[in-house]
Design a protein that fits this description.
Layout (H helix, E strand, L loop, with lengths): L2 E2 L8 E6 L7 E5 L3 E4 L3 H8 L7 H12 L7 E4 L4 E5 L10 E5 L4
Parallel strand pairs: 1-4
Antiparallel strand pairs: 2-3, 2-7, 3-4, 5-6, 6-7
Length: 106
């Protein structure tokens, strides 16, 4: 297993699955490969957001405000590239998986 310290969410990211292993905390399902990552799924998402269009929490609050969603809030990771995260559980659940969807508008 090749374990990465960090992972950057991109158009090939399909899902980030939480795991409890000594060497890694996430398995990233990519369109082309499976990647083992030391970061937790939440750390991966929080680090992806500031480089795009706001922090994770800012985006989460905006979506809750405009949609009324409270649990399982979808997060626009990079709206300009059509990358959105859809959770399987509330953020407080340790078993939350994040599934990603890329929509390309050309």
């Amino acid at each position: 297993e090749n374990i990465k310290k960090n992972y950057n969410i991109n158009k090939n990211t399909l899902a980030i699955v939480p795991v409890k292993q000594i060497e890694y905390n996430s398995i990233v399902l990519d369109a082309n490969q499976i990647i083992y990552v030391h970061q937790t799924p939440l750390q991966i998402k929080k680090e992806a957001c500031p480089y795009r269009t706001g922090t994770f929490e800012e985006k989460r609050q905006a979506v809750m405000h405009h949609t009324g969603f409270k649990p399982k809030v979808p997060i626009p990771i990079c709206p300009y590239k059509g990358i959105y995260a859809f959770p399987t559980h509330a953020i407080t659940n340790l078993n939350v998986n994040r599934y990603f969807m890329s929509i390309f508008i050309g």
